[in-house]
Amino acid sequence: MQKQVEIRMHENHLDPSPLPEESMCGGFCDKIMKNLILVLTVLGVIIGSVAGILLRYASPLPADVIMVIAFPGDILMRMLKMVILPLIISSLITGLAGLDAKSSGRLGTRAMVYYMSTTIIAAVLGVILVLLIHPGNPKLKANLGEGKKNDEVSSLDAFFDLIRNLFPENLVQACFQQIQTVTNKVEVGPPPNPNRFGRNATKSAAKYVIKKSLQFKSGMNVLGLIGFFVAFGICMGKMGERAKLMLEFFNVLNEIVMKLVGMIMCAGTLPVTFRCLEENLGIDKRVTRFVLPVGATINMDGTALYEAVAAIFIAQMNGIELDPGQIVTVSLTATLASVGAASIPSAGLVTMLLILTAVGLPTQDISLLVAVDWLLDRFRTSVNVVGDSYGAGIVYHLSKDELDLFDAQQIRPDDFEMAKTQSFFENNSNHGVYASHNSYQPVQIDDCKVTLASNGSPADFSLVEEEPWIRE
């Protein structure tokens, strides 16, 4: 039969003694130590900015001095690149393996709808703003030199490269190389005509034929790795208990990598975003570990906005009026180019070639943006991170009921009853609580007075751990 348990809190538990007030200096020092990484980061930015301004007016520094100054930053970037691969692998697998196929499918659909919607909105917003503000002036370009001419990029080739990289033929090779279509000019023409003295009498005009080939370039194929490990995590989730040991391994790996990244650089965008969303906002880890790594690769709202603005800015600098069809082309191409942009600094300059080629603008004018791209890249990254964070929150809000239902199905009936009892007790800790209990396991209750109510005759006693209850 069911037992009725009355739980009352001791007075000293309900009314804790006030803590001694800390001095103002001690509280300030505690806040500084708690946010030490942030304080040091701000100090580093200030010191680096001041030192850079002062060294700019100094005489040209020797190459060895510049190398010594850049050496710590180079080591830091190499360490961050080292943990990208295990971070993507562990976060995706642990996030998706904890879901069933239906939940993961809905989660992915909602995330992709959000990604594409916000990217298109960002590109359209950039087009509207640049047309209204009209920052480009052809007179300014007359004072600038000609930039370096870049190879033209076909929109179709870029799209096919995106699909090819999504399905890598070699998973190990995808860790450090990705495929790219390369355009080469091959000289073709009639062979030279030798004269009677064995020398060329005339030299025919050279003719060139454009040939395309697939080549591998250095750089991690993040899109291909994400595609594989998303499928891997879903398959692990469908295997259930048979994949339990493997899932525990990747859970431990994910925790180790997150701590390692935090030790290397707490200002890294992805690990900090993980921590803020999971610890501060309470978003489910299964959502963040799927949405954030994928969003960091294909949800480039800041990049889409920048590329749309930059393309029309270059047209304005050249005095070219774009028709409505070309403006639509810029918006769509900026959306697709931002999806395929690599998660590396100044990746927007590379994908800008695709947009300029699509609307017939001079590609060498990218040099107009190089001088300020280092600053714009910081703003683009901020917009990208904020977009990913909002996406995780929206997807979690839409999927919360499904995740709760999935969790409830995984919990045993007894455990589920105890979970409800504990939640009810926590919400009513200031007065007596009556809860039904059907389990025969020992009950651990700290600093509480437990009263067993049987047949209306309560028996008061205080203890920390009860013996197993006996069915009457």
CATH architecture of the largest domain: Orthogonal Bundle
**Count, helices:** 16
Radius of gyration (Å):
31 Å
Assembly type: single chain
Q: Give the strand line-up of the largest sheet.
A: 6-1-7-8
Number of separate structural domains: 3
Task: Please report the distance between the alpha carbons of the first and last residues.
Answer: 6 Å
InterPro entries: DAACS (IPR050746), Na-dicarboxylate_symporter (IPR001991), Na-dicarboxylate_symporter_CS (IPR018107), Na:dicarbo_symporter_sf (IPR036458)
Keywords: Glycoprotein, Membrane, Symport, Transmembrane, Transmembrane helix, Transport
Transmembrane segments: 36-59, 79-99, 111-133, 218-237, 249-270
Protein name: Amino acid transporter
Question: Can you give keywords for this protein?
Answer:
DAACS, 472 residues, symport, Proton glutamate symport protein, transmembrane helix, neutral L-amino acid transmembrane transporter activity, globular, disordered N terminus, Na-dicarboxylate_symporter, alpha+beta
Topology:
Elements: E1 3-9, H1 11-14, H2 24-34, H3 36-56, H4 63-97, H5 101-133, H6 138-141, H7 155-166, E2 177-188, E3 193-194, E4 200-202, E5 207-218, H8 222-239, H9 244-264, H10 269-280, H11 285-298, H12 301-317, H13 324-339, H14 347-358, H15 367-410, H16 413-427, E6 433-437, E7 448-454, E8 457-462
Describe this structure in words.
The protein is an alpha+beta fold and 472 residues long. It has 3 domains: 3-16 and 412-462, no CATH class; 88-173 and 219-408, Orthogonal Bundle (Proton glutamate symport protein), CATH 1.10.3860.10; 177-212, no CATH class. It contains 16 helices and 8 strands. The strands form 3 sheets. A 4-stranded antiparallel β-sheet has the order 6-1-7-8. It has a two-stranded antiparallel ribbon with strand order 2-5. A two-stranded antiparallel ribbon has the order 3-4. β3 and β4 form a beta hairpin. The longest helix has 44 residues, at 367-410. The radius of gyration is 31 Å and the shape is globular. It starts with a strand and ends in a 10-residue tail after the last strand. Mean pLDDT is 71; it is low at 1-16, 145-150 and 429-469. It holds the Pfam family SDF. It is found in: Membrane.
